[in-house]
Amino acid sequence: MVRFILRLAAKILSVGLFLLTLAAAWGGHISPHIWATPSILALILPYLGMTTAAVTVCWGIARKIVMTALGVLTLVASIGSLSEAVPFGSENKPEGGVQFTLLTYNMMHGIDYSDPTSGAGTTLRYILHSGADIAVLQEMSGLAASELPNTPPDLIDSLKATYPYRLIDRANYLSVLSRFPIGYSRATNPKTSYDCIYTVDIQGHRLTLVNTHLESYRFSDNERDVVSDIHSVGSAKSSLKRFKGSILSKMKQSFRIRADESQQLRRQLDSLPDPVIVCGDFNDVPTSWAYRKIKGDDFRDAFSETNFGHRITYHAHRMYFHIDQMLYRGDIRPISVKRIREGASDHWPLLAEFEFTGKRL
For each successive 10 residues of the chain (361 residues), what is the average pLDDT? Predict the structure, then answer.
């Protein structure tokens, strides 16, 4: 009798897991303006997918054909989204075209996540020594000493010398540092608070570059600790109660705002000349509504094409998500995109190497 109850409970939990995985896989296809809850599930699709795969294997070992078949069908039905969330790509070999390296990084205004009083030295040193030809930065106030307190002046001077071309939007904290000539694109119309569009001249090639930082969840420090505060059953219940309150409401609102932002950004992208790279802090995962809206049918994901397995880019408060993205279109191809565990922000940077495949201007 006990064995029967345990087996029944395992089946019920497994079916529940399979349904959650399907909802997460297809959640990014539903507009948050219609129903925002599936967008929350999409955030945890990699973890649901990997758990579903493991449970399916266990049922297969136990020779339970029906449960194994349900698990396999769930994975097959979710494969499109799972392949974006947990990619199966690999790095490409250079083919002799002009190459450049590009860094995208939410640097959290240079604040050291582990020691907020230490200054921006750790983050700026990483950028300086990253080898990137172009550094696309979000949450960067500027390079003045007053904007980077407790930071050695010689470090700031070295960064300026390395990147002689700099465009800094202090109003929206979007900046780009470049070894190549760069200017604002005339296509930036209307001007928004969440993206900047640039034109970069790279050894006879012209690149359109979009730096974006979509709406954040705007959690308070107390709300951000809802996961990290879980240490027992009692604290889990408390965190769940807090989640159902202001946190859930803020998440749904942020999904809706990003849906609007992504639609407006998509309209801008439709008018931009190729090749184009869109990168930055999307504050959402590769299977989300906002991501899909921006990507459309013409952009490709440089990270998923050149990486194998799930990689997080946000690592604070036990909220482990891949929310920094890099999309491209036109006569360029990614050779590699690496998630780098350096710097001092609550985000990890992405460092990419691209190659032009078209002719020079």
Answer: 85 95 95 93 95 96 94 96 93 93 94 81 93 96 83 92 94 94 73 84 96 91 64 50 74 95 94 96 96 96 95 90 97 96 93 91 67
> Closest by alpha carbon to 325, among 358, 352, 356?
352
Residue type, 294: I
Owner of token pair 């749904």: 252
Contact 88, 310 (CB under 8 A): no
Report the length, in residues, of the chain.
361
Spatial CB neighbours of 69, under 8 Å, sequence gap ≥ 6: none
Q: If residue 85 lies in a helix (H) or strand (E), which one and from where to where? A: helix 65-85
Are 288 and 323 within 8 A, CB to CB?
Answer: no
User: What is d(CA 122, CA 132) in angstroms, rounded to the nearest whole number?
Assistant: 16
How would you list the strands of the sheet with 324-329, edge to edge?
Answer: 182-184, 195-202, 205-213, 276-281, 324-329, 300-301
Helix axis angle, 121-129 relative to 153-162, nearest 10°?
Answer: 30
Mention every residue, 6+ apart, whose C-beta is less than 8 A from residue 101: 130, 131, 132, 133, 134, 351, 352, 353, 354
Helix axes 2-27, 65-85, angle to 10 degrees: 30
- Distance between CA 285 and CA 24 in Å, rounded? 11
**What is the Cα–Cα distance from 169 to 163, expressed in whole angstroms?**
16
Amino acid at 31: S
Q: Do 117 and 85 meet the contact criterion of CB atoms below 8 Å apart?
A: no
For residue 230, give the amino acid letter: I
Under CATH, to which class is 99-219+245-356 assigned? alpha beta
Domain coordinates of the chain in residue numbers?
A: 2-85, 99-219+245-356
Measure the CA–CA gap between 44 and 285, rounded to whole angstroms. Answer: 9
